[in-house]
Design a protein that fits this description.
alpha/beta
């Protein structure tokens, strides 16, 4: 949710944006226009990567959530003309739902509608043995609609998402996807919705598991690049330290590169159909940067990002590895790639 009272009109969020070339004066003018609800340049230039929220919250310390204002105005102004086919594709609520019951003494894990986006056998691990698995459209969080100028759909359906997950009866719910975790910990509370369960990010769950089973770990001894996904921008201060600890535990070196952490580049899934040339350039920059800094692989936390970039990574000799598979490799469940 946009918090105008927290914005000091510094313009740094848009000045830092990697997809536009705004100087300080232009950035401040754009923020003022957003505050006034005007049709302004950033509305057509925005790739919906959400990085401006991270710049404002974790870099500046204000947490005004400028992207949330952009998302509101994308819908109100109609500037972001996303093809209906893409909007419908992102409506995961229509997908078939299933509840696979596990050990009642173990946690529940929601994989939302991500199963089709995952690498084969990505969840076949001792880490997830006995968990109750909830999947399908019933547990869809509607966060993806923020990418396509449909903020009202996210807002209207957030109670449905929270109630569906709460109906599982678990005190703690592990979320496979950042978007679901962000919806439960950031978006729903911002909308004034009470969340009656504790949300556990998949990274936190796997990190704790690996700590408890560190004697089963074989160090991977590879250099990796870490790909940042859009929804992680809301929770970078929570997730980044855990990711670094996990990487150290499994024995991979996260290479220091230009497009990492708060400077990470979008996978381009969201804006690729609208800006194909820019999307191609961004993907090439991201992969080239990883290669130039000595990475053997690129690790993904988001299934959509993995699905979008895996092919191009392989074409350039960079192994695309989903985060669960990285842990599976360290546990000897999957061959090192």
């Amino acid at each position: 949710m946009w918090h105008p009272e927290r914005c000091d009109l510094c313009g740094e969020c848009l000045e830092a944006c990697q997809y536009v070339n705004y100087d300080s004066e232009k950035a401040i003018a754009e923020i003022k226009a957003l505050m006034e609800g005007k049709k302004t340049d950033i509305l057509k230039d925005c790739v919906t990567c959400m990085a401006c929220n991270e710049y404002c919250a974790d870099v500046k310390g204000n947490a005004a959530n400028p992207f949330d204002r952009i998302a509101e105005l994308h819908e109100k102004t109609g500037i972001q003309h996303v093809p209906p086919a893409i909007v419908n594709f992102l409506n995961g609520s229509v997908m078939r739902s299933e509840l696979i019951k596990g050990d009642p003494d173990k946690p529940v894990m929601s994989i939302c509608v991500q199963e089709a986006m995952l690498p084969a056998r990505a969840l076949e691990s001792q880490m997830f043995d006995g968990l109750t698995i909830a999947k399908g459209g019933k547990y869809f969080c509607f966060f993806a609609q923020l990418h396509v100028g449909k903020e009202s759909i996210t807002r209207e359906n957030m109670p449905t998402f929270v109630n569906a997950v709460a109906s599982l009866g678990a005190k703690e719910v592990i979320f496979l996807h950042d978007e679901c975790h962000v919806a439960a910990t950031k978006i729903a509370p911002d909308y004034g919705i009470e969340v009656p369960f504790k949300s556990i990010h998949i990274i936190e769950y796997m990190l704790n598991y690996l700590k408890e089973h560190r004697n089963n770990i074989t160090k991977i001894n590879k250099k990796i690049a870490c790909h940042r996904n859009c929804s992680s921008r809301y929770i970078s201060a929570e997730i980044e330290p855990m990711l670094d600890e996990l990487f150290e535990l499994v024995g991979v070196e996260r290479v220091a590169r230009k497009y990492d952490r708060d400077k990470g580049l979008c996978c381009t899934f969201a804006f690729g159909p609208l800006m194909p040339k820019k999307a191609e350039e961004v993907r090439e920059m991201n992969i080239a940067d990883a290669k130039e800094h000595g990475a053997d692989a690129m690790v993904f936390v988001c299934p959509w990002c993995w699905r979008t970039l895996a092919g191009e990574c392989e074409e350039h000799g960079l192994s695309p590895i989903f985060i669960t598979d990285l842990c599976r490799m360290a546990l000897g469940e999957k061959k090192l790639s």
